[in-house]
Q: What sequence folds into this?
């Protein structure tokens, strides 16, 4: 229950968000943050440096879009940080939870499928058997297309998944523009050869809800296939881009599965909670994911996080925002090698799993983008095309 003080502060937050909307609509200069979180000084220093570089105050329609878009969500959090009772309140919580609840049929189907797959894998398939690749490819692609569930793109509208994810995969094969699935499997096999039973995967999450569920299923299969031993899940440390996963979202989905009337959900919740308890899975919160920087400057701006990622054998980055920060959100030529667009950021082998919802993409074949655009003019923003891209040191 929210106290009377909390209710009054909620009105203040609503007023601040209305002012924020007006600032955006009328192209006002960006303002300094006022809260007391540890990242406030970083955001405010960044704004001052942008003012120096632009030789004028950055405004909404004039500064780099990736920066002002992130700034908008950080300003929303700042409004909550200035209260006494609502600092930990997630304004997007209900939307995220309702989106998952409306996708329960698809999640249930996939949950039963993964449990059946786990039973099959008890036969200890040889690493070179065709079944290993088939399982690997299926769960990787379900995780990829789970990325379509983005509430920030749909303006908070329902993004429910109604169809069976497994059946959808076969329909979507031709819409994966770059498919480095075999390369990723080779990297994991080599990592296991070099570090038997010690392979660490870092998974930088994107959306909560159904996408997070598919991510957990992917990781489960990677461990069942003995391709990965430890997994570090990187979440946002504050509500972000409406649907981005926080620690609370992660724990909530385990709780919901555990309390479900469906046995398959209960079994998965039990398995996954035990993995957290056994430290086979860890939930990592780092403030860098909600700072104004792209990833090319991470080694300079947050060497500790860069070192943690460097200790991984593979890093999977999920989703559109991560891809934009990987590539600096620049207008690269489509044929620019993906590794080039990372601008030196490569702490470990990287796999980007992303459905296209913003107009930046690299690593395509010559003429591929232009050819798709003839039939699908909005191919870069529709979420109907995907990428499984690898870059290796």
A:
């Amino acid at each position: 229950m929210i106290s009377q003080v909390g209710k009054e502060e909620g009105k203040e937050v609503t007023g601040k968000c209305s002012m924020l909307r007006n600032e955006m609509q009328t192209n006002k200069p960006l303002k300094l943050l006022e809260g007391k979180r540890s990242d406030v000084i970083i955001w405010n220093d960044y704004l001052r440096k942008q003012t120096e570089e632009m030789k004028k105050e950055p405004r909404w329609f004039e500064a780099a879009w990736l920066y002002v878009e992130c700034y908008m969500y950080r300003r929303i959090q700042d409004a909550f940080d200035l209260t006494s009772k609502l600092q930990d309140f997630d304004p997007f919580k209900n939307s995220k939870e309702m989106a998952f609840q409306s996708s329960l049929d698809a999640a249930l189907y996939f949950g039963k499928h993964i449990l059946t797959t786990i039973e099959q894998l008890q036969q200890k398939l040889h690493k070179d058997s065709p079944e290993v690749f088939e399982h690997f490819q299926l769960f990787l692609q379900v995780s990829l297309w789970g990325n379509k569930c983005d509430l920030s793109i749909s303006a908070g509208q329902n993004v429910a998944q109604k169809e069976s994810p497994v059946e959808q995969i076969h329909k979507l094969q031709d819409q994966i523009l770059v498919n480095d699935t075999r390369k990723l499997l080779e990297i994991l096999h080599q990592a296991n050869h070099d570090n038997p039973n010690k392979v660490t995967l870092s998974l930088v999450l994107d959306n909560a809800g159904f996408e997070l569920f598919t991510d957990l299923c992917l990781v489960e299969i990677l461990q069942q296939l003995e391709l990965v031993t430890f997994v570090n899940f990187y979440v946002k440390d504050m509500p972000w881009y409406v649907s981005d996963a926080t620690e609370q979202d992660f724990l909530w989905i385990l709780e919901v599965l555990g309390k479900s009337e469906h046995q398959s959900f209960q079994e998965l919740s039990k398995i996954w909670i035990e993995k957290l308890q056994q430290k086979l899975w860890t939930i990592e919160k780092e403030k860098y994911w909600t700072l104004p920087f792209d990833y090319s400057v991470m080694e300079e701006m947050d060497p500790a996080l860069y070192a943690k990622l460097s200790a991984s054998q593979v890093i999977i980055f999920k989703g559109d925002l991560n891809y934009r920060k990987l590539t600096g959100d620049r207008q690269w030529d489509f044929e620019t090698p993906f590794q080039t667009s990372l601008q030196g950021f490569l702490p470990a082998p990287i796999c980007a799993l992303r459905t296209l919802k913003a107009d930046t993409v690299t690593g395509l074949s010559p003429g591929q983008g232009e050819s798709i655009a003839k039939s699908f003019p909005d191919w870069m923003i529709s979420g109907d095309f995907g990428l499984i891209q690898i870059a290796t040191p």
Remarks:
- The radius of gyration is 21 Å.
- The first helix runs from residue 4 to 25.
- The beta strands are 176-179, 200-204, 230-235, 281-285, 314-318, 350-355, 386-391.
- Residues 152-158 have pLDDT under 50 and may be disordered.
